[in-house]
Amino acid sequence: MIHKSSVLIIGSGPAGYTSAIYTTRQMLKTTLISGIQPGGQLSITTDVENFPGFKEVQGPDLMEKMKEQALSCGADIKSDHIHKIDLSSTPFRAWGGGEIEYQADSVIIASGASAKWLGIDAEKRFLGFGVSACATCDGFFFSDKEVIVIGGANTAVEEAIYLAKLCKKVTIVYRGVELRSEQILKDRLSSLKNVEVLYRKVLVDLKGEDNPKRISAAFIKDLDTNNTTELACEGCFVAIGHRPNTEIFKNQLDLDAAGYILVKPEFSPFTSKKGVFAAGDVQDKVYRQAVTAAGSGCMAALEAIRYLG
């Protein structure tokens, strides 16, 4: 089965939905593929208080509102997942479940990036209720509380520095013997009196309650002695990096060493392939915010409109 459109949008987070709103308002036939996780990372986020126009909104509700707006503008939203794509010539071709072939004159990639997790059961149990992968998104909810940050590279140190402004105490838990962040970040961290770094330690479990759901402590294992100790905390920020969802674009588009789509110039929507644009976290490893993703989705849509014009 072949499904044709002017614009194919891969991904349904803020970037994807915003792109769809703009392209459909220009009367371009637009197909949006929602992917494995409709709504992206916001679909598993609870309170959102930093998206303009919403004093407070639940992440899934915000994504549902964006989806409804895209639908009202005329977007054709498919509950499907793209597992193969051919960008070698136009029309561009992509394949979803049941071997449905999508053809389009332009493609906007908004497949996002997924946070890397430790893989312990407690992460799933308390995700959105004490466990987070974004300090700038959720740090506010832990003002004057004790939290832990897992990781030792730039992301973890940046998260800890940010949280130190809000939290009573921040403890970095790192399996290495020395932080791997840039020296300037290490210097900033060392000047903060409410931050402690635990080396050669790993998080093995979290202690908490289910009604209301919250964290009260973390169980930390010493890699040298194998002893496990309990550390009081109310928040756990996992900062071991993100993984862009770009597997199917390898050998088709220029990617950086971490797998993010390279755009020219930086933070523009232009990929290495004419007619193919990238928006949101799939090309942004710096800001990773809903509002910046939505903004880049707008940029990608406007450029796709110009390209098709």
Span from first to last CA? 28 Å
Strand portion: 25-35%
Q: SS-based structural class? A: alpha/beta
* Outline: elongated
How would you state the average pLDDT, rounded? 95
- Biggest beta sheet attributes: 7 strands, mixed
Low-confidence stretches: none
Q: Report the C-alpha radius of gyration, rounded.
A: 21 Å
Secondary-structure element series = EHEEEHEEEEEHEHEHEHEEEEEEEH
How many β-strands, per DSSP?
Answer: 19
What is the count of DSSP helices, taking H or I runs of 4+ residues? 7
> Portion of residues in helices?
10-25%
Summarize the entry for a quick read.
With 309 residues, this protein is an alpha/beta fold.
Topology:
Layout: E1 2-10, H1 14-25, E2 30-33, E3 47-48, E4 57-58, H2 59-73, E5 76-78, E6 84-86, E7 92-95, E8 101-109, E9 113-115, H3 121-126, E10 131-132, H4 135-138, E11 146-150, H5 154-164, E12 169-174, H6 183-190, E13 195-199, E14 201-210, E15 213-222, E16 228-232, E17 235-238, E18 242-244, E19 276-278, H7 290-308
Parallel strand pairs: 1-2, 1-8, 2-5, 8-19, 10-17, 11-12, 11-17, 12-13
Antiparallel strand pairs: 3-4, 6-7, 7-8, 9-18, 14-15, 15-16
